[in-house]
TrEMBL record:
<dbReference type="InterPro" id="IPR001653">
    <property type="entry name" value="DAP_epimerase_DapF"/>
</dbReference>
<comment type="pathway">
    <text>Amino-acid biosynthesis; L-lysine biosynthesis via DAP pathway; DL-2,6-diaminopimelate from LL-2,6-diaminopimelate: step 1/1.</text>
</comment>
<feature type="binding site">
    <location>
        <position position="154"/>
    </location>
    <ligand>
        <name>substrate</name>
    </ligand>
</feature>
<feature type="site" description="Could be important to modulate the pK values of the two catalytic cysteine residues">
    <location>
        <position position="205"/>
    </location>
</feature>
<feature type="binding site">
    <location>
        <begin position="73"/>
        <end position="74"/>
    </location>
    <ligand>
        <name>substrate</name>
    </ligand>
</feature>
<dbReference type="Pfam" id="PF01678">
    <property type="entry name" value="DAP_epimerase"/>
</dbReference>
<keyword id="KW-0963">Cytoplasm</keyword>
<protein>
    <recommendedName>
        <fullName>Diaminopimelate epimerase</fullName>
        <ecNumber>5.1.1.7</ecNumber>
    </recommendedName>
</protein>
<feature type="binding site">
    <location>
        <begin position="205"/>
        <end position="206"/>
    </location>
    <ligand>
        <name>substrate</name>
    </ligand>
</feature>
<comment type="function">
    <text>Catalyzes the stereoinversion of LL-2,6-diaminopimelate (L,L-DAP) to meso-diaminopimelate (meso-DAP), a precursor of L-lysine and an essential component of the bacterial peptidoglycan.</text>
</comment>
<keyword id="KW-0457">Lysine biosynthesis</keyword>
<feature type="site" description="Could be important to modulate the pK values of the two catalytic cysteine residues">
    <location>
        <position position="156"/>
    </location>
</feature>
<keyword id="KW-0028">Amino-acid biosynthesis</keyword>
<feature type="binding site">
    <location>
        <begin position="215"/>
        <end position="216"/>
    </location>
    <ligand>
        <name>substrate</name>
    </ligand>
</feature>
<dbReference type="GO" id="GO:0008837">
    <property type="term" value="F:diaminopimelate epimerase activity"/>
</dbReference>
<feature type="binding site">
    <location>
        <position position="11"/>
    </location>
    <ligand>
        <name>substrate</name>
    </ligand>
</feature>
<keyword id="KW-0413">Isomerase</keyword>
Length: 280
């Protein structure tokens, strides 16, 4: 099975075209492909392009635990680069349908940078678009955190802190991700505001764990920082893997821009997928 691997600021994805398989990918196959010992290894699978009735392309996004995500900012930037590299697009702006809504992507610098319109940041995990930003207190192990829900199609819980560290994400991220108050689990970001145009985040992703960067997390965290009046509408989001630029309009529609790097074209032996019965 042919694949193409890219990373966006260290958040790596494997692109698999549907014609590489004679069936829809199973959860066990996704887990195997993403496994860094039994498979190729990645923070997720991008399965596409699929036909769309409303957009130029449709994309399905899967986490390493086999769950399907409504949106992935880095995944969308990588998929846009893939479409450019494989000449499936003849112009630099095109639309992509995801489970979490339709987005517009624009490729720059031969695909080394991609801009994606991520849609509206909403301060809820449900479908209610009208909710204002709302403070929530969550008791996790020995800690009480104050955080804010946000969604860009996928769910996020953003926790402003004074002392930011990767340890916070590793120690509390998995517990918050699975907390019963989040009906579909949640992505988690710990946020430090550096100035009105710069934030720093540490990320624990739903279904993927600790990642070096995340486009939808960057968008959600920037939306919360803006909603709290701590940042203006153009925000640089610093993460361990690098920087993403977010711009928000007055209705909180977000545009995200960042780098994409191609890693490899590859061929996964079907034996690895058959072996998964002994693995997962
Ligand atoms: N784990 C996320 C999807 C990937 C998000 C992240 N890789 C990004 O770039 O937005 C979820 O289940 O919602």
């Amino acid at each position: 099975m042919k694949f193409t691997k890219y990373h966006a600021l260290g958040n790596d994805y494997i692109v698999i075209a549907p014609n590489e398989l004679d069936h829809d990918m199973t959860s066990a196959e996704i887990k195997t492909i993403c496994d860094r010992h039994y498979g190729v290894g990645s923070d997720g699978v991008l399965y596409g392009p699929l036909p769309s009735a409303s957009c130029d392309f449709k994309l399905r996004i899967f986490n390493p635990d086999g769950s399907e995500a409504e949106k992935s900012g880095n995944g969308l930037r990588i998929f846009s680069r893939y479409l450019w590299d494989t000449k499936l697009v003849t112009h630099d702006t095109f639309s992509i349908e995801t489970k979490g809504g339709e987005v517009k992507a624009t490729v720059h610098a031969e695909g080394k940078r991609v801009t994606v319109d991520m849609g509206k940041v909403r301060y809820t995990h449900g479908s209610d678009h009208s909710l204002a930003i709302r403070k929530e207190t969550i008791q996790i192990a020995d800690q009480t955190f104050v955080g804010y829900r946000a969604s860009v199609g996928n769910p996020h819980f953003v926790i402003p802190v004074q002392q930011l560290s990767a340890d916070l994400a590793h120690q509390y991220g998995p517990l918050i991700e699975q907390d019963a108050r989040f009906e579909n689990r949640t992505n988690v970001q710990f946020l430090k505001v550096l100035d009105r145009h710069t934030i720093q985040i540490e990320i624990w992703e739903r279904g993927a764990g600790y990642t070096l960067a995340s486009g939808s997390s960057s968008t959600a965290a920037a939306g919360v920082a803006c909603g709290l009046g701590l940042c203006d509408e153009i925000i640089s989001v610093n993460m361990p893997g690098g920087e993403i630029k977010i711009s928000l309009d007055q209705d909180l529609f977000a545009t995200m821009q960042g780098a994409v790097c191609k890693i490899a074209n590859g061929e996964l032996a079907m034996e690895a997928l058959e072996d998964y019965r002994n693995t997962f």
